[in-house]
Design goal:
Helix content is 38%, strand content 0%. By secondary structure, it is mostly helical. The chain has a single domain, classed as Lysozyme (Orthogonal Bundle). The model is unreliable at 215-232 (pLDDT under 50).
């Protein structure tokens, strides 16, 4: 039975048991939210170039502490200045990490359990990251999903059309759509190769039911500082 895997640094190879388990868990959560197999594979193809299927992965494998300071990109002239403005975290490398770590929606999820250098997380933080991704891309005021496609305008599509594959597009097309609609980083054709791998692999897998979320414990709560600083 598949389960979430996580480690403090590094990636999981595409053919590893850990990557396959995490891909199946991702499939289960996103399928429950209405995602098509093609969209799931497209997102996983992009995930390979971001975190290497590791939900605890920090940018440059520099694991930060829970009291590190980030700001939301929309906050002008912060005082005091943040120490880590451009530092990513998670399956899709939320950048800055505070966009996920400090969002009240993410914190409200019972599987929210990020990993820090001074505070151990739980692998099922991957579940919370999946739900956060769907939520933030579904929110038209959030600015996370670009329906125009940006520089990849030939792949423009609404998020709803993307995740349901309403236009019946190929996996190859949807990999580009997710990249230009959400990631907008440095393109690498291996994302297409990996997406097709997952499309074939998951085609023979019954989407697992997301497990019943555990009851949060006080040890995973963030300090009051973060709630005051980021009142979303």
């Amino acid at each position: 039975m598949a389960q979430w895997h996580a480690k403090a640094t590094g990636a999981y190879g595409r053919n590893s048991n850990e990557a396959k388990d995490n891909a199946e868990m991702f499939y289960g959560v996103m399928n429950s939210l209405g995602w098509s197999l093609e969209a799931v594979a497209a997102a996983l193809g992009n995930q390979s170039g971001e975190s290497g299927y590791n939900p605890w992965r920090w940018g440059s494998d520099n694991v930060l502490a829970s009291n590190s300071q980030w700001i939301d990109e929309r906050e002008p002239n912060p005082n005091p200045p943040p120490r880590y403005f451009n530092h990513a975290y998670g399956l899709f490398q939320q950048d800055p990490a505070g966009k996920y770590l400090h969002r009240s929606y993410a914190q409200s999820l019972s599987t929210y359990a990020p990993n820090y250098s001074n505070q151990a997380g739980q692998p099922h933080d991957g579940d919370a990251q999946c739900r956060y991704l769907h939520w933030i891309c579904s929110d038209p005021s959030g600015g996370e999903w670009s329906s125009s496609g940006g520089s990849g305008s030939s792949y423009k599509m609404s998020f709803s059309d993307f995740y349901t594959n309403a236009q019946n597009k190929s996996v190859d097309f949807l990999v580009h759509t997710f990249f230009w609609g959400y990631e907008r980083g440095t393109w690498d054709e291996v994302r297409v190769t990996d997406a097709n791998f997952w499309y074939e692999y998951l085609g023979g897998v019954t989407p697992p039911e997301p497990p019943t979320p555990p009851t949060p414990t006080p040890s995973r709560k963030l300090p009051l500082f973060f709630y005051i600083r980021y009142p979303f």
